[in-house]
Amino acid sequence: MLYTERIKALRNDHDLNQTQVANAIHVAQTTYSDYEKGKVRIPVECLIQLAKFYDVDMNYISGVSDTLCPFPNQ
Fold it and tell me: Which UniProt keyword terms apply here (predicted)?
């Protein structure tokens, strides 16, 4: 799964809109929308912020792994 699909799925799973997530990672809603559409590559700093915001592993966000958290119960 591509990171664009992952970030959209995470947002929908948490019942958030693009503006809420954009505010959480300190970007404009239009910028975040472009991230989800794949029009603009997400900077690593924003990927880190998204992983922290959703409390998931970076490898999950980036699509490298299907495991939400590499160390369950931490």
Answer: DNA-binding
